[in-house]
Amino acid sequence: MQLNMNLVIQSLNDIPQQQIAHLAALSGASTIEQLDAHAYRLRNAKEHPEISSYCFEHRIDCGFVPDEKSLSDFRLVVMDMDSTLISIECIDEIADMQGLKPQVAAITEEAMQGKIDFAESLRRRVALLEGLDEGALQRVYDERLRLNPGAEIMLAELKRHGIRTLLVSGGFIFFTERLKQRLGLDYAHANTLEIVDGKLTGRVLGKILDAQGKADWLIETRDMLELKTEQVIAMGDGANDLKMMAMAGTSIAYHAKPVVREKASYALNFVGLDGLTRLFKSSL
Questions:
Q1: Tag placement on the chain: N or C end, fewer CB within 10 Å?
Q2: pLDDT number for residue 115
Q3: Helix-helix angle 101-112:118-127, to 10 degrees
Q4: Strand 250-254 and strand 232-236: pairing?
């Protein structure tokens, strides 16, 4: 049985009527439904090879969504932290306190692209932080950490639909726990920096939470809540998120590396995090 599909298009700015009409023609959509100022649902649409490239060229995010799929069908959203929920890579900003941001950022980028093993990359980066005063962590949180656009709108809508939230990060508990409290997230897991006498030792305590660790926490939380795979959304931006995203019924690449965009159910390349909630119908 063939599912009826809708093409959801959204942008940071107004989408010109001629672009909407062009996409409606390409997809053979039966009707055009405006969702808000910058988003539309093109109903009964069919895929066409030109749609994706046309949308990317015009800075429009697009996704084919089954007509019957609503936000309430999901019960858990699992999110990466650095460069997904928040706009920075925390370790890069901590390193900046040591004047080492370029060196650490270069290793971060290699790990994000999947060129080097995440656990090894984290050990190398954290080792460069040896001797840094632990107060640098609070400074990064206070002075540099910012939520990505649309984060609070997205989280409020998830909460309204009774959807649980799990923040799982290859970063550090210092930041995930503060965000969990501040944003009312249900669960959070990350790595722990070793601190002795108020100084970072350059080591991570315990087993490093890597790509497999993220996937494991998704599975453990899903099973604890007695959910089916199709009730879970996973969102991330780097290669370290791919195993986690593969364990979810729906995966979303947020302003992500090409390797992640290619494997995700949907990609949000231009809009904010609230783009997630526009993809699916609200049943409330």
A1: N
A2: 83
A3: 170
A4: parallel
Q: Which amino acid, one-letter code, is at 97?
A: M
pLDDT at 111: 82
CB–CB of 137/264 below 8 Å?
A: no
**What pairs with residue 32 in β-bridges?**
42
Rounded to 5 degrees, φ, ψ at 136 are: -65, -30
Instruction: Please state the domain extents for the chain.
Output: 1-68
Average of pLDDT values for 109-137? Answer: 90
CATH code of domain 1-68: 3.30.70
- How would you class 200 by CB atoms within 10 Å of its CB: exposed for 0-12, middle for 13-18, buried for 19 or more? buried
CA dihedral 61, 64, 66, 67 (to 10 degrees): 70
Q: Which helix (H) or strand (E) holds 250?
A: strand 250-254
Residue 206, SS3 per DSSP: coil
C-alpha span between 17 and 123 (Å, rounded): 51
Residues with a catalytic annotation lie at 80, 82
Q: Is the pTM of this model over 0.90?
A: yes
**H helices within the chain, ranges in order?**
17-27, 51-57, 90-96, 101-112, 118-127, 135-143, 151-160, 173-183, 211-224, 242-246, 258-263, 275-279
DSSP 3-state of 103: helix
Summarize the confidence of residues 127-132 as an average pLDDT: 93
